[in-house]
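Thread: quick sanity check before group meeting

JM: Hey all, I'm pulling together slides for Thursday and realized we never actually wrote out the predicted structure for the chain we discussed last week. Dropping the sequence here so it's in one place. If anyone has concerns about the input, flag it before I start.
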Amino acid sequence: MEQSIHVPEAVKERFTAYASLIGIGLQFEARQVFKPIAHHVKIAQKVVAYTPVDKLKDGFINLLAGARGIVEVNKRGRCDMGLQRAFGRAGCAEQSVIQDTLDACTAENVTQMHTAMQVIYQKHSQGYRHDYAHDWQLLDVDMTGRPCGEKAAFATPGYFAHQRNRRGRQMGYVTATWYEETVVARLYAGHTQLNKALIPLLEAAEQTLHLDCTRRARTIVRMDAGGGSVEDVNWLLRRGYQVHGKDYSGQRARNLAQQVRVWVPDPYNPEREMGWIEETETPYCREVRRIAVRCRKQNQQWGDWSADLDLDTP
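JM (edit): ok, ran it. Output follows.
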């Protein structure tokens, strides 16, 4: 029982700590998912042992293996030949070499990557093949804070949940909710909020999903209060979308809530009530229905806000 087991070198190559990831790698290669990136992304860097795209793939494999940074490449993907071969790699670049390739990327390369990701999404996603005649397409738009070091691109002070006085960036997403797919993702400065990123994100999603006027009329855009300004909502309504979101202005929400005549208790939460806002004139370019929601605070008083809900039908 105390004797160690000697494993020959030829057998060691067959061991892997990422058995489940091997299957993903085989499908990844069979579907040629990385091919659009190799076609569109051209990084100005000379080739010694590996091409820039090879090194991008090595960094990608490292992320799938659970690494939190490029510094973990050597102890994860680089020492696991089975994992490399599953993704079509005969070897793995050293971590500092991969970082040099990332540092060599320019804004033009980022645009090229967006184009490649659009091609990949259109070829392999369910959201792109959504049947608009059969059901609504539901797109959620949101921002997520990504803390980072002060020297990183776009690193600025901003809001990051549970982390005060941090610098970082904001990642904006458009998600095809029915399919749990990210349609587009864009990186912004840490102080950027959804009211600045909403329209660029939706314009990118329109291009990826080929949202013409017919498809937009069958698409619900859902967002939180950050994208609920009158200007943003009107832009969405003029584009033909159905909109579900909260009002951007807390003061306006409180004023509107005072117009509710009948409050209806929430059957699932006795501390919350809802009521229709009966408003004849609105600042919006299309007819909307608005519902106010109020919740009881710790001092037993009611706090309230309102949500915009477009109920127009084609």
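AS: nice. The first strand starts at residue 137 and ends at 147. The chain has eleven helices and ten strands.
JM: adding both to the slides.
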